[in-house]
Amino acid sequence: MPVSPKSLDVQESRARDSLFLLAELTLEDSGERHKVKVRNLSSGGMMVESELEVTQGQRIVVELRNIGHVRGQIAWVRSEKFGVAFDRQINPKLARKPVGTTQETPRFLRVLDAYSPSYPRQR
């Protein structure tokens, strides 16, 4: 169900995640792609900081880490910041999860328990 810009007043009282996240934003009318900084993220929208010139009501698609592509529209514009109302609800906590999927201990943190010619043990 689309989120209307009018519902932003209600969304402002909902919990937001303040963060610094880079995302790729595509303007639907021109197909132009831009890297933007996401400063606040909630289930219904986000606040973006960018020098990109956008207008209220303009349709966009944003690619968010661990969430994927989300369609929406520009809800408001103030100097170098603008708000986006998503067409569907998302789980903003997914954007904070690490990108890697492995639970394995990184190699540099492993304890060396076997002989290696490149790392001789001192006795």
TrEMBL record:
Domain PilZ: 20-92
Source species: Sphingomonas ursincola
Entries under InterPro entries matching the protein: PilZ_domain
A molecular function GO annotation: cyclic-di-GMP binding
Recorded superkingdom: Bacteria
Pfam families, per the entry: PilZ (PF07238)
Full protein name: PilZ domain-containing protein
